[in-house]
Amino acid sequence: MTTTETSHADSLDAEQEGYKQSLGSRHVLALADAPPVSRLAELGVARVSTGSGLFWAAMGGLAGAAEELRDRGTYAFWSGAARGRVAASAALLDGDRAPRHS
């Protein structure tokens, strides 16, 4: 490792140790600068929450689509619609908590 890489690695280790010490629990509210989930798991974290982050990410996508339609009059946003539909279907309809029909 170069000095810069070593310094960066030391900084990350200190930051991640800070997560471990400051939380003192097995639950973490992960913000944008949080270590990856895999690293949090190594530190003993059992549950990671994103708070309202996923909601705001979705709102960002919605705003981008609306701005495209308003400003350019185009429909490229539809390219992401299929992914959203599949993900929602898997999470909400096909998952373990899906309503069962007899």
As a whole number of angstroms, the C-alpha radius of gyration is 20 Å
If helices are DSSP runs of H or I spanning 4 or more residues, what is the number of helices? 4
Poorly predicted regions are: 1-10
What's the helix-strand series?
Answer: HEHEHH
**Major β-sheet annotation:** 2 strands, parallel
Strand portion: 5-15%
Decide which structural class fits the backbone.
Answer: mainly alpha
Give the beta-strand count. Answer: 2
Shape: elongated
Q: State the helical fraction.
A: 55-70%
Strand order of the largest sheet: 1-2
Compute the number of structural domains: 2
Q: Mean pLDDT, rounded to whole units?
A: 78
Distance between the termini: 60 Å
Word description of this protein:
With 102 residues, this protein is mostly helical. It folds into 2 domains: 1-51, no CATH class; 52-102, no CATH class. The chain has helices spanning 3-23, 37-42, 53-72, 78-93, and strands spanning 27-29, 47-49. The protein has a two-stranded parallel sheet. It is elongated. Mean pLDDT is 78; it is low at 1-10.
